[in-house]
Amino acid sequence: MKKKLMKWLNVGLVSVLLVSMLAGCGKKSDEGSETKSDGGKGETVKIGVLVADVSSENAMAFSAYYNDYVAKEYNVEFQFTDALEDAASEKAAIEKFASQGCQGIISMSSSDRALQIETCEEYEVYYAVATGMLDDAQYEEYKSNEFFVGQIGASMTAEYETGLDMAKYFVEKGAKKVAIYGAFIPNPMHVYRTAGVLAGLGCTYGGASDQEGIAGQIFGDQGVDLSKVAGDVEVVAYFQGYGDTTADEFNAASQAAPDAFISVGMGTTFFAQQLNTAEIPFGDIDSFTSSNSEAMKNGKLEYIAAVYGSSIGPVFAVMLDAINGNVIRDEEGNALSINQAYAVATNGDEFDEYFLKDNSDSPIFDKETLDAIVSDTANFEDVKSLVEAH
Amino acid sequence: MRLIKYCQGNLKGTSKAMGNKVIFRKCIGTLAIPVIAGLILGVICLVNGKAMIGNRTSFNNFVIYAAIIMITTIALSINLNSGRFDFSLGAMAILSSGVAAKVTYSVLSGGKYSAALMLGLSLAAGILLGLISGLIYIILRLPPIISSLGVTLIYEGILYTMTGGSYIMGEVQNTSMAKVSGSWIPAFIIIVVVLITMIILFDHTKFGYEYNALKSGQKVAVNTGIREIPNALICYAVCGGLMGIVGFLNTVRNANINGGQLGFGSISIMFTAFLPMFIGSYIGRYSNEKFGYLLAAICMSMLNSTFAVFANTVNASMQSIINAVLLVVFLVYLNNEHLLKKGVKQ
Question: Is A223 part of any domain?
Fold first, then answer.
């Protein structure tokens, strides 16, 4: 009798569990479809942001813009990663974001963007690139992926030309000896910038003097091999990355007494104080921040090609559109790829033009500006013209 | 009487000659390694048409690096000579300087005297962290190598939590800090003060006598009434204080503090001191051990300056290999010294 009762109790319990599980699944499915169809208008939209750099003012300006401005103006919540160091950590971060209900991933980390897109596809979350761009071959491969919303940033050619212009500036000022900081090569944007710098100095690299010829070799060497550099301007020191040996490498570069220190990224963040102290003129591709303003007005920063904090506004807008159901495509039906040029400043006044205009209370890409492309009817031309106008 | 006087005179002369010989031997023993190292490295630079220390910037870097190495070496040797391997030295340096940087910035906002305040706070925070590390070792009664590994992880974790894994930059990049990095004088003053303080503390105080007694024979020393625990605690506190100064000097040199050094990332700070510790101990046979560490640090700084001269041909990984090879060669020499002496005598 007791056994029978236990048997029925077990059956009853299992049934209750099964019913509640099914009910739970049904509810989740409903919720999911509600979120998708609502597209964030009713519920808070969650967007994950992949970040490789958490320290620079540039990175802080980006996160401040999203957290302190965009999140308040739109019904959206941003979740940022810690500093991602490799492809595995990027993949793990996307998986974590997807499990936390993020509907879109904005990438500011570039260890392996192909893997990022594939992981987003696997978890059915939208993906967009906010800093840098995929190289041409990768873009061709993934441009038709339904979860790849697009990329708004400097194209590789724009990166190359930015480096080229910066180097030319110092050559025209009479630099005969320079030190180069290659930032985080093999990051593609840093490779192309460095290639541009070498070309701008009038140097050849392994005999090559064109964009692809130099960049291809730098990719192959995973850095710049000074024995392959030839030209009238002497490159007295080259180093890249940041770690235990950087202080020694920087000291070696400054002891070589270069006429200019040319950095292709984060040089102002890491070395501005030492360069100012050693009185070495320097240039960088970074951002319009208060410390760079100080270095330009009272220090030795002479050239900066930069983006401003809210320059990542349009990529947010197209991501929100996609989550809301309006996945914007270019004329050929592919993911967006829009070039966003760098602004250049060579003195305090030029610097202030961008720096003072763009702050967390009234950014250049403010709500009013972004609303032009945050809509169910926004299209490629709208986004392109807005980006190019700023 | 005459004979006695004659004998006394002769003995006096002999002992004077002996004394001169000992002093000469000590001078040679003390200066041999730095002079030979300086000559070899200098010649290498000259042959290649370069100078080891070519300008003011390189001299500033030379003195600051020597200060960092000397103080780290003294800190490492204090506990290691007593049989306590302390892995947490690097973590103490980064955490104490990190805390000091944050507090200094909140008080002075990067203004005047920021460097002086940060140095003081870094020293105080280092002493506190050293004391905590010592207490953990004493209370848990774990082997020091194990407890120090735990302490390293805890300190690295605290700094990571404080900074979110990012670099501390804005707080340490100001005119006051730039003045310290742009001159050799502050680092030189720190070297002199630390060296004199350490020589007095370890060679001319009751604590120092007890430390040396414990180092030579712990059981015998304890049986004579020397209290081991307070002595160990003071050692940890002194190490912490020294690493606080190292943290400050590293901040001056790098213009930032890496807050993301998890998983024993800070240990490399301590490992820079191994080769100079062995060299310093060797020099210490002929003079004061702490002075030996200074000379060893100068040798390492000369090597570092030479690497800087050839940075375009000898990259960072090659430099690490050269350092490691030098360490191994020196250890091989130390371990086989008696055989070499035997061979020479025969």
Answer: yes
